[in-house]
TrEMBL record:
Signal sequence extent: none
Name this polypeptide is given: SRPBCC domain-containing protein
Pfam families per record: AHSA1 (PF08327)
The Activator of Hsp90 ATPase homologue 1/2-like C-terminal domain, residue ranges: 22-151
Amino acid sequence: MNTISPSATSGPEFSITRILEVPRELVWRAWTEESELAQWLRPFGVSTDSVSFDVRVGGHYSYTMTNDETGEKFPTGGVFLEVEPIERLVFTWGEPDAPIESAPVITLTLIAQDPQRTELVFHLRGFEGKPGDGFVYDGWDEALVNFSRHLAGERLG
């Protein structure tokens, strides 16, 4: 296992858990392949373009979300800190060029429930979120709804 350790290890945080009715390999692919990410990586009412993911320790990723109603753009990106294929992905999240030391960190843990079901644990350190906050928690919760719909084969608009 290769990793880069951010210096910040505490702070506000929250987790969202989903049980997905697909094998862990498909969940991993949908989180790590650009063509898959471009289809679901956004909250409701937002479009995503210019998706670039270099999934390796030290690799960078970026994407731009655009509010469909106002046209406001939100460049987003970070650095992959830990990559354990089909089990765990750790990366910074926020402004594309934010320093690793101060960036929020997302950890995805994929747990096989059986050959056809996967538990996804999404953990974000760096923001205090809760359901109904209309901000980071709700945005990621909506993105995970899109993620589940994408895995179920729904075509997202």
